[in-house]
Amino acid sequence: MSRKRSKLEVVFDVLDVLNKEAVNPTRLATLANMPYDRLRKLLDELIERGLVMLEDHGRSQTVVLTLQGHQLHEELKRIKKILKDYGMLD
Amino acid sequence: MDLYSTVLALLEVVGAVAFAYLSTLFLRIYVRLKSDELLAYTTSFILLALSQVCSLLSTIVSEGRLAATLYIATSSLAMAGFMVMLFPRRSSKFYMLVPLLVTTPDMLAGLVSTILVIRSVRGRTRSFLTILSLSYYVRGLSIVLSSAQGSLLGLLVSETLRAFAAILMSLHHMTQVLTHEQEEK
User: Which of B32, B84, B86 is best to mutate for the A interface (most A CBs within 10 A)?
Assistant: First the structure.
């Protein structure tokens, strides 16, 4: 049985996906492997912190990493190995 | 300082700087994410950096007792740092071990201060230090009790007792200093 991901792991996975491409929230939930409602809550938090933003395209929306989000992703990558060593990331 | 001590001191400095760097890196990410786990790791790296500093100072100072004090601080700070790393998540199943680990330094502080009271302390300081010593025993016990019962009453009583004793003792020593200065005049 796989263990439950920590919030940090989930954030890292979300930022990792968004660093590669801007996607709509539904696709992001699939790629980050998490329920849609949980993702929406997390996105609200990340938007509030200025790490991601939602771009409107008529009837659809795309989640995009902001500059701060890119910086945070880079910083998280720098400590990724340490977090892996301590079992905080898979 | 001989060659061995110099090399050891240099290694301690490098270790302290490295841990300090790591803690600032983790702190920067924590400020952006406000994640509990990152705060735990930031704290543990800060404690490990401080532990390195204490270790460095313990090798530098020539006075034996001071070196021993710093030596104890080295392991105490490292233990606190490792403990945070051991339980970075609130849901950790080993969380129940925390109270027992936390109790250990309290009980030791109580024991050492009791020995101090019995062996060498005189006057009013003896009474104040006894209260302080007692507060550490109560503190240690109440941590275990509060984790079992969920009540923080014992912990609050012990903290109040400890703060009260510490203030009385420090004010007593302040008064001793001030009255001595007046007597000198």
Answer: B32
Quick one: closest CA in B to A80, which residue? B26
Separation in Å, CA B31 to CA A46, B39, B77: 13, 9, 24
Pick from B15-24, B72-81, B86-95: least confident: B86-95
Residue B77, SS3 per DSSP: helix
Rounded to the nearest angstrom, the minimum Cα separation between A59 and chain B is 30
Per-residue pLDDT tens for A28-60? Answer: 999 999 999 999 999 999 999 999 999 988 888
Give the separation between CA A73 and CA A26, rounded to whole angstroms: 21
> Could you tell me which chain B residue has the CA closest to the CA of A71?
B29
Residues B99, B105, B110, B114, CA torsion sign: positive
Q: Which residues of B touch A6 (CB under 8 A)?
A: 37, 89
Strands (E), A33-72: 52-57, 60-65
Do the beta carbons of residue B140 and residue B155 sit within 8 Å? no
Q: How far is Cα B60 from Cα B136, in angstroms, rounded to an integer?
A: 31
Looking at residue B40, its amino acid is: A
Predicted pLDDT of residue A36: 93
CB–CB contact B29 A49 (8 Å)? no
Residues of B in contact with A68 (CB under 8 A): 32
Band of pLDDT at residue B90, cut at 50, 70 and 90: low
Rounded distance between C-alpha atoms, residue A62 and residue A78, angstroms: 27
The ipTM (two decimal places) reads 0.82
Q: Check: CB of residue A14 under 8 Å from CB of residue A28.
A: yes
Q: Is A6 on the interface with B (CB under 8 A)?
A: yes
Tell me the pTM: 0.72
